[in-house]
Design goal:
By secondary structure, this protein is α+β, with helices and mostly antiparallel strands. It has a domain at 2-78: RRM (RNA recognition motif) domain (Alpha-Beta Plaits). It is built from two helices and eight strands. It has helices at residues 14-22, 54-64; strands at 2-6, 27-34, 43-51, 68-69, 72-73, 75-78, 88-95, 98-105. The strands form three sheets. It has a four-stranded antiparallel beta sheet, covered by helices on one side. The longest helix has 11 residues, at 54-64. It is globular.
Length: 118
């Protein structure tokens, strides 16, 4: 089971997070996200913990959700699986004081016929 852990202190280490979750079962992996893609390496304040079984993960979520770690109340929920839906993206667009939910779809041209100009 993959678990999202949010609102982490920037000083929290992967070892500390592993120690919190090990009390409730076998921890497969711990990853705290950072800005490695832009080169700064700055921690982002959230991470993922992968546990060996779904039942151990559910117990860990129930016990750690709302707990204080380094003076911050952490958010712990089951992580959503990655989606294969790359065709439609939902956007909330702000216009003035209103939000509009717009969908952008990738459109493919399937019938290409040459057009002759006169």
């Amino acid at each position: 089971m993959n678990i999202y852990v949010g609102n982490l202190s920037l000083e929290t280490t992967e070892d500390e997070l592993r120690k919190e979750f090990t009390e409730f079962g076998e921890v497969v992996s711990v990853t705290i996200m950072d800005d490695k893609y832009i080169g700064s390496g700055q921690l982002r304040g959230y991470g993922y913990v992968e546990m060996a079984s779904k039942s151990e993960g559910a117990i860990a979520i129930a016990n750690i959700e709302g707990k204080k770690m380094r003076n911050r109340v952490v958010i712990v929920v089951e992580a959503l699986p990655l989606s294969n839906k790359s065709e439609t993206v939902s956007l909330n667009v702000r216009s003035g004081n209103r939000y509009y939910n717009k969908k952008r779809e990738r459109r493919y041209i399937t019938n290409l016929t040459p057009v002759m100009q006169v």
